[in-house]
Amino acid sequence: MRFLLLLIFSISLFGEYLLKSDYIFSNPIITAKTIFPNIQKDIFIYKAPENRFSFYLNSNQIVETFRKYGIEVSKNGIRRVKFTYLPENISLEPIRDEVSDNFFTTYPNIDIHHIDIIPKHPLKKLPENWSLVFRESNLRRSVGYFYIEDDRGQKIHFKYIVDGSIYLLKSDRNIRKGEVIDNSNTYPDITKFDRYRGSYISEEQLGKVVAKHYIPKDRAITNRMVEKLKVIKRNQIVRGFIQDGAVYIETDVRTLQGGGVGDIITIETSEGAVLKAKIVSSKLVQIF
Question: What CATH number is given for 237-287 in this structure?
Fold first, then answer.
């Protein structure tokens, strides 16, 4: 809920139009809509050189062209903008969708605004059947390279650029080692997805994890910084149950390990049998 409110009330720090490092073109006449498809006023920018798969334009040249028409564009720290040709009859949407799915699976709290897929070499068509080869290391940064492979083992290489934001939780104050992480000592924030810095904790984990070590104020909290809240301690007497179909047996057991809900620990029965059990609550374990 706090993430939703943050999204509603967040304000962009930049202008409406930000230049990107790469663009796709199908028409050799580069216009404002080539760069910003939703812009109302279309403006001639440049005519692409004949038979060129790609070319660069100086970002200052682009910004000044827009400025002549009263449109402010931010260079966004980019010096040169690359334009790459893609025939109109080729759609990269299926590839973009698969790349997007990879990032959503890895980062549940990511908000992907757009993913650019740029061919590294001239394309005439895509194979009918292909598989995506996207390394795990690609998921750790917003810009990189991957390829698709057809049934014959032929590879087609692409560049990807992810424009997205990560929703995360930060420490609202200094948090001591062993302190429970919850709503009272965290606040939601949004950061631009750039590169992997560790998986961030989610709101669902609040109240269920504790700090492994001291966490300074305003620090983004990752899963490496926390551990499960131990609801059961070592040498504690709890109820243990075994369920096999309609058969249900419950008895007192002694824990040989501590842990949090969902953890597998070792327990000892009153007869001295040492077994494995899953923590269900602070007073109950399921015996295997």
Answer: 2.30.30.760
